[in-house]
Amino acid sequence: MVTQPLVAPGVAAPHTARQRLRAMVGDREIVLDCVVEVTFDRVTVVGLLPAGNRVFSVRYDGTKVEQERTPQVPAQLQPQQLLADLQLAFWPVESLHDAFRGGPWKLSQPDSRTRRLLRDGRLVAEVHYGDTDPWQGRAWLVNLERGYALIVDSVPLEQDT
Predict the structure, then answer these.
(1) What is the pLDDT of residue 59?
(2) Residue 51 within a domain
(3) Which of 79, 18, 25, 73 minimizes the C-alpha distance to 49?
(4) Is residue 74 part of a domain?
(5) pLDDT (tens digit per residue) in 38-51
(6) One-letter-per-residue 3-state SS of the chain
(7) CA–CA distance from 21 to each of 41, 48, 49, 80, 107 (Å)?
(8) Bigger pLDDT: 1 or 129?
(9) Cβ atoms 44, 36 nearer than 8 A
(10) What is the pTM of this model?
(11) pLDDT at 160
(12) What is the rounded CA–CA span in Å between residue 1 and residue 53?
């Protein structure tokens, strides 16, 4: 299965957030606590089980993806795919349109609380938001192609200046 193109880190405003991810894969549910850090030159996501054990980390500098994962993470939830899902849900729509331009991927946003990702005209993923600020509150993502759903509860973390 093909993962949608990743978007350069610098197109999103810097954010640091704590996210509780509930992933449903078939009849299995996994709860992960993640810390997401977006800077102008890097995106880092670290996933932990609620007990504190690290199960994956992924870093992306706009060119190269570095990832580590344990066998506890189902095959459908690859760290690079999770990063692509987070970008689909949290990056500015304009930057996603730019990244997908000229390829098989298209993004539509029928309203401020819904995004749809299509590849070659077929719906691949859909995101719904509980709030107008996706970095604060709940987002639901369903990846139809890979057969999983994510519920993401985000809380912004204060950054030292």
Answers:
(1) 96
(2) yes
(3) 73
(4) yes
(5) 999 999 999 998 88
(6) CCCCCCCCHHHCCCEEEEEEEEEEECCEEEEEEEEEEECCCCEEEEEECCCCCEEEEEEECCCCEEEEECCCCCCCCCHHHHHHHHHHHHCCHHHHHHHHCCCCEEEEEEECCEEEEEECCEEEEEEEECCCCCCCEEEEEEECCCCEEEEEEEEECCCCC
(7) 24, 10, 10, 15, 23
(8) 129
(9) yes
(10) 0.88
(11) 43
(12) 28
Q: Considering only the C-alpha atoms of the chain, give the largest distance between any 2 of them, rounded to a whole number of Å.
A: 44
Q: Are 11 and 92 in contact (CB under 8 A)?
A: yes
Give per-residue pLDDT as tens, 96-109: 988 888 899 999 99
4 within a domain of the structure (yes/no): no
Q: What is the pLDDT of residues 50-98, one digit of tens each?
A: 888 899 999 999 999 999 988 877 676 678 888 999 999 999 888 898 8
Question: How many beta carbons lie within 10 A of that of residue 41, not counting itself?
Answer: 10
Domain range for residue 93?
Answer: 9-156
For residue 126, the domain's CATH number is: 2.50.20
- Between CA 159 and CA 124 the distance in angstroms is 34
- Two tokens at 4? 């949608």
How many structural domains are present in the chain? 1
The answer to whether residue 161 sits within a structural domain is: no
Q: Tell me how far the alpha carbon of residue 94 is from its chain's centroid.
A: 16
- Kindly tell me if the per-residue pLDDT of 13 is higher than 60: yes
